[in-house]
Design brief:
The complex is a heterodimer of chains A (about 280) and B (about 575). Chain A is mainly alpha-helical and about 280 residues long. Chain A contains eleven helices and no strands. Chain A folds into two domains: about 140 residues, no CATH class; about 100 residues, no CATH class. The radius of gyration of chain A is 23 Å and the shape is flat. By secondary structure, chain B is an alpha/beta fold. Chain B has two domains: about 200 residues, P-loop containing nucleotide triphosphate hydrolases (Rossmann fold, 3-Layer(aba) Sandwich), CATH 3.40.50.300; about 240 residues, Rossmann fold (3-Layer(aba) Sandwich), CATH 3.40.50.300. Chain B is about 35% helix and about 25% strand. Chain B is built from 23 helices and 20 strands. In chain B, the strands form four sheets. A six-stranded mixed β-sheet of chain B has the order 6-7-8-3-9-10, sandwiched between helices. Chain B has a six-stranded mixed β-sheet with strand order 16-17-18-13-19-20, sandwiched between helices. In chain B, strands 2-1-4-5 form a four-stranded antiparallel β-sheet, covered by helices on one side. In chain B, a hairpin with a 2-residue loop joins strand 19 and strand 20. In chain B, about 50% of the residues are buried. The chains are: A mainly alpha (about 280), B alpha/beta (about 575). At the A-B interface, helix 1, helix 7, helix 8, helix 9 and helix 10 of A face helix 3, helix 4, strand 11, helix 14 and helix 15 of B.
Amino acid sequence: MARKQRDVLSVEWVKLELLRTAYATRGGLMSKFDPRVVVAWYLVFAVVPWLTHNITTLSVLFAVGALAVVLSRVGPLVLGLFIFGLVTETAYIFAVAWFFDGDVQTVMALLTLTLKLGTVALASMAAFVSLDPEKLSDALVSMHAPPLLSFGVSYGYRMLPIIMEEFHTIVDGYRLRSKPVERGFLGWRIPAAVAFALVRSFYPMMLNTAKRTRTTVEALETRGFTFAGESKAGRSMRLAYLRLGPRDAALVAVTVALVVGAFMFGQHLPLLSRDF
Amino acid sequence: MTAVIAIDDLSFRYPGADQPSLRGVDLRIERGDFCAVIGGNGSGKTTLCKTFNGLIPHFWTGEFTGGATVDGLDTLESSVAALSQSVGYVYQDFGNQLVRPTVGTDVAFGPVNYGLADFRERADDAMRVLGIDHLAGDYVWELSGGQQHLTALAGVLAMDPAVIVVDEPVAELAPARAEETYRMLERINRERGTTIVVIEHHAEFIARYAGSVVLMAAGAVRWHLPVREALARTGELAEHGIPSPQIIDAVSRLAPEAEVPLNVGEAKAALDGLGAPGPVDRRPAEASSARPIASLTGVTHGYRDVHGRLSKVIDDMDLTLREGERIALVGSNGAGKSTLLNLLTGIKVPRKGTVEIDGLDTRRARPAELADHVCYLYQRAEQMFLKDSVREEIAMFPTERARPGTDALVEEILDRLRLTEMADRDGRTLSGGQQRRVTLGIGLATTPALLLLDEPTSSLDVGTRADVVAMLAALAETIRCVVVATHDMHLVAEWADRVLVLDSGRILADTAPADLFDDPALLETVGLVPPQISALGREVGIHPPPLTVDEFVSAYAQAPVGGR
């Protein structure tokens, strides 16, 4: 079979998709708000689903999450993984319910949990695909997160492309220097060889990455990061640009309205709700 | 002038080390100086420079005696944070000192941390001085090496320090980019009066930019002299692994009584009295009709970037590489060199056109099968290390393929590359030159028809570099065709017999090294800096220009002396 250059479903594509997601290159609705409001918005949707068992309410929240995902232009890789997870989860629920002689009630009980997890997942996709590392770490700083945490977050993003580059190179090294894989029955040896190479790549990748951080640690010292942890002046200067505007207030209002609406709708039209 | 750095009888030993890294160092660097620190590997250059900003002894603790005063601060009594406001440090692996996602925020990182209210102006100013203000919003991982180096320098400059230390700028940068960095350093030095300290192996840059030179040997300062005096001591420099610049060598051989020249113009003036040189005796290159090892037909390739745009890297290229050729692939960063090498390995297949290696279409064969015919050695040796020892690393390929006689082959390669002693060590713990030899070993063990090397001489000191060049020359016995992608024009001059000049995905020229260096317009277009001896050869009227000092000197020997 002739090989060709692929633009999707290749290692290169996965790399780019992760970068696009992490660095919020696609823009989208949520990226225009103050990062603190976006983080708060996410926290609302991460907590609220756990306060109810009402399937109607949960469905509305799920729908809001899904809408936010669409407006935030979440990329195909992350979305694909989510949908794959959701579909297999649903299949699993039915299988389990059937196996343990369950009925509709059992399915509904399990579905409740799926809806909750799904809503939280949707909200986190919408929020984090919209926050680039600068904004996220500034939001954390302004919310009085420990400086090491907020720096860790932005440095983690900084390392992401480096780690992926290292990993890709090492995997390629294995491809070239290992013996050509025979296909085996239904080609089972190919995924097996890929899995082996992935596991084996981990150790060289970590070593190569760790060596790079020696300079980084020194540079942090000489560029005053430790010093900044002890003084407050830098913090307020860095955050001076963060300002809440009418747009942010509108997002808060719409969010509150939607959440309250979801609960009221759930009260009004409970669907197969149960009492615990 | 007053001393901005004053060091008295300073000694330092890392914990657990047998020998002190610095012993009895006495040094005065004047304010506003442009000082080059030279010396062989392990002579204590970097350790010395890390005492300036207090990393030694505050961050790396050890046995510290004597004293150092930098910009009026006693380093033993001041913190790294306080000293760092006076001393900026640009690392050899500068990419790792960039810690923020975007250029603008990274440059402002220092001033913000120190709570300087005018941080924005400082950052903008530093970026403007270095000509990278248009990159402020870019992510640091999108930048080229040269741009990253300038960003690191801007981050340091934004603090407006009294001293800037730059550790081996040429090691990881293309010469044209390094030239740019040096020009910027010179400007900062001149306009702001900032003292510049560079650790440097390349005598050419020292000659053109430095004001004074510090020679380090075995942890002590051997001498600190004005640049001209320092470079005149050619024998002593060579002893410490710093061969003198080619033009100084040539002038000292032809006109021993002349003053040491610091640039090509001065060298030409020094040789004026010798009369006109003759031509260089060189066999003309003939068109090769040897068997093709690799061929590209109408190849076009490109990548998608993070914004989804397709950028064309190789544009409709036709090329044949033949048996027995030593090919240098040159061109600026982003010209398509790495992509071309990747296409030749079959790791990537072209979007259009065909690539054939040893008669195999790369589209029809898997990379693991092509690996029997072609081997690619990465620029960063570490990235090739997959095993725990040098021996396993070299043996991996033939063992995996169960080739007969593997053990004997591995032993022979270890012996040939002088690696037997370290055969059981982890490759990652070796020095740069040793690592390069290990990757050559990996290449030899695959016994390919075509060997591809990416920047085999980058970040090597001059002694190790000569070693690698000699080994490349010896490869011809076993490998049918070798391609080297490089910025190192000395390597091109000494080793290659065919040069491919790449620019924006096209082959701009397919020529011999001497012809390349005889074409200033072409060199300018692709940002290449010819070896000084070739430039001097052109200046004095030798066409095609000489590639080595020996050729240059022999051209004078053949000259019709006294206008005969």
